[in-house]
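Hey Z.,

So I finally got round to the flavin-adenine dinucleotide thing we talked about over coffee. Here's the setup:
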Amino acid sequence: MLTFVTVDRDMPEKRPPNLRRDDFHEIYAEFAREKAAEQAGRCSQCGVPYCQTHCPLHNNIPDWLRLTAEGRLQEAYEISQETNTFPEICGRICPQDRLCEGNCVIEQSGHGTVTIGAVEKYITDTAWENGWVKPMTPAAERPESVGIVGAGPAGLAAADRLRRAGVQVTVYDRYDRGGGLMTYGIPGFKLEKDVVMKRIAQLEEGGVKFVFECNIGTDTGFADLQDEHDAVLIATGVYKSRDLQGPGSGSGGIVRAIDYLTASNRVSNFGDTVPEFDSGELNADGKKVVVIGGGDTAMDCVRTAVRQGAQSVKCLYRRDRSNMPGSQREVANAEEEGVDFVWLSGPKGFTAGGGHEASVRGVAVEGTEEGRVAGVMVQRMRLGQPDATGRQSPQLIEGSDYVEDADLVIKALGFEPEELPTLWGVEGLDVTRWGTIKAEFGTGRTSLPGVYAAGDIVRGASLVVWAIRDGREAADAILADVSERAVAAE
Ligand SMILES: Cc1cc2nc3c(=O)[nH]c(=O)nc-3n(C[C@H](O)[C@H](O)[C@H](O)COP(=O)(O)OP(=O)(O)OC[C@H]3O[C@@H](n4cnc5c(N)ncnc54)[C@H](O)[C@@H]3O)c2cc1C
Ligand code: SF4
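And the result:
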């Protein structure tokens, strides 16, 4: 250990941009065994491991790094999976620069962080290859049943923990496959889908029942779930896309990021037929694409458009690079792949094909199909004083407008929760002023007895690793509560 003084930080090999631009496979290769041991050996085994503190799951990172450095991979896996339900997924898609790696002590001392995420992925991928990932076999079956709404990371992490304890678990999801945004939001070049499907299969084999294509609120009422199960966990995520206003914003060819990414994930990863993709509505092939937004969703859209064969891909963001919410690693990847970032710019409206009512104030564009977008009217910005969050707020530069050509515009401005109590007709389920469900910190208990909530529907749009933590904590609270009720009933 402690070789960080002599051994430089190294990531697994990254495929060159000209090769990775044409497919949806992950861009990083796996570490070779020796390389993983070498990189894990850079850990300084410090007394207060800040990496662990800043990992939402408080993974025992120094322990599994030491075991990896010593070649004791199965033991490393055992420790790693104790605190994380899906370590191979977090290793791939956590924004490590903001979490564990960003707080690594040797990073702070200027030596370059230990590549924690890549080692975590390597350990669990190796465990799968070697058959160390064991089927779920509860020691004894329990009579209690729990219904989980949503098969994203929060719901799946809870299902895993409850089922291992012998509880009867049913997961309901409106989609045809499990995984939530891990399956239909995050593109394959960050997270290949067989990694997620393997986990769903493990849960199914372990006795978790999945009911897909079942929209709670329309196909089945929430009250029915309450009647059928001893406890219900709401883990539905947040899907209401923030929208754009302004002249021309209703034109054809202006689409929501979630629709665009879902179509791409279906076609490129599962070979599904998606009519809106085939018609070109949700396909960037040959198009001039403008993505609006500066978060990770925007980064996923621009990189997807590159792979679909877009003629050009631009990302419009109203702040500058250092003030953007997306991971810097993903921005760098996008730039390598040919994406053009237009910083300090926001949309004022859209030009569109002639005659369409949306083409206002003389910006109808000749030669463009009627009612379809032809360009984005861009307003240039400058950054003012920092606001309460510490980020500098953008201010318009008057008279600086220009038009950026576009025949596909993707809105990636973030997500908000749907109004669940209204949608589902549930009385007494408290929500915050942002519409997220009010749930007790650390247990997910809501204002309704026997109803729990976890993941993005509680936090607002967040991260997979936080959803896993919430799901695990809610499962523990459910177990404690149903056990207490069982004892009281004796
Ligand atoms: C494009 C994109 C890229 C992202 N990239 C990353 C990343 O790189 N790293 C990272 O950590 N995080 C990333 N995130 C965030 C991350 O995906 C989410 O924070 C996480 O998936 C939230 O988990 P969840 O279980 O709460 O919800 P979700 O993953 O959204 O799952 C919710 C599930 O509930 C189902 N559902 C909803 N309503 C109903 C209903 N009424 N009835 C039945 N089922 C219902 C949905 O179909 C869905 O399957 C990204 C998000 C997006 C959109
Ligand atoms: S779960 Fe995420 S934050 Fe925690 S150690 Fe793994 S990669 Fe880092």
